Amino acid sequence: MKIRKNKQTLLIIAIILLPLSLALELNLSNPMIGYCDEVLTLFMAMYIIMLFLKGKLYRCDSNIVVLLIVFTVYGLLSNIYSGMAYNWNSAFLDAFLQWKIFVGFLVGKYISMKYSDDYVVNSIVKLCKVLLVIGAICGIISLFVDIGMASYSANQRFGIPAYYFVFGNSGRYGIIVACELLFILRKYEGKRVIVYEMLALFNMLLTTKGAVYIIFVFYIVLKFIFKKKNENAKIDFKSMIVLGLAGISALTYQISSYLLDNTAPRALLIKYGFVTAKKYFPFGSGFATYGSSEAAKHYARLYEQYGWSNKWTLGKSNGEALNDNYFATIIGETGYFGLIIFLSAFFSIFKQINAIRCNYKVKAMCMSIFIDLFVCFIATGITKSSIGMMAFLILGMFCGLFNKEKDIGVS
């Protein structure tokens, strides 16, 4: 019992520590706190590699590890081919950070699968309830008074300040809210759940972010799709068409403003990600050379070649957007083949989430969070942040909690 609680307590600490570190980093203006996810990635990677070498991973998860190893080797070959990295330490660090979301998922899965109970859920659910209530109260206040929890920019959407509670970023806060609701859906049913669903919806609406709205839009759609089949529900081709239409409706503003506007920083990152992939075909420019935190830290030589040195949000002195798109990072640094390898590992996780058998509301929220993380992978940098890692850790936990070997194709 003691060992069980010790291991699961580490999982609880990791889940809470990731959003907490973000809040502390932003509110205490201490960048060192922001390395929490990197430290956790190191220990989680060691744990997963140990299981892999001992042959204790299911086949589908061993395949993810193999894909990550191939992806890393391929990316480092890209470094040799291009010669564009600041130094090899940066390249190795950037390569290591690409493991973040995957080892988070696998650690969450194997800890919860081994013990297969609700100890983690029971330990966190009260905190989730409290945060949803406090978040809603502070959100209402922020509509009328600036209490430092929202962005009052000149281009407010719908005339509402973008609410982020204590997390400094509305998109990340939306994912945190979704994860809070996921724990509550696992623990409660009936009218009590409806109350917290409404609280979560209100918190998400206040963010004014389409990438957040898509979570709740998909949650509502998937609830209707999954309800009839309940535990046997899965996303099929027809479901994907419905979700695609719903997603386009929810993301109209983001698609036109961020991805189709050639002057938008994220659109430029993606555009020149393809330029970079073509320039260094068949590889890419290599780790720490384009779109990553290391590339931004050392202001990659490619940025100067592309004439961004004095460009707004992409320049040397104001480059806050340089690390704001995950898709651009992968396509630029590892090229088309690297992107295929990365997406293969990504969609291996999708298959596992799609195969779990549980209450239809829990399944709908798990899938909605995953789809949102994929949307954020294409459109923003949230997926590779500490909150992206937290979400994958939780999704892995729920996959492990409802694990069925025959359902996820393992032997």
UniProtKB/TrEMBL annotation:
Residues that span the membrane, as ranges: 39-57, 64-84, 130-150, 162-185, 205-225, 237-256, 326-350
Keywords: Membrane, Transmembrane, Transmembrane helix
Protein name per UniProt: Lipid A core-O-antigen ligase and related enzymes
Naturally occurring in which organism (per UniProt): Faecalicatena fissicatena
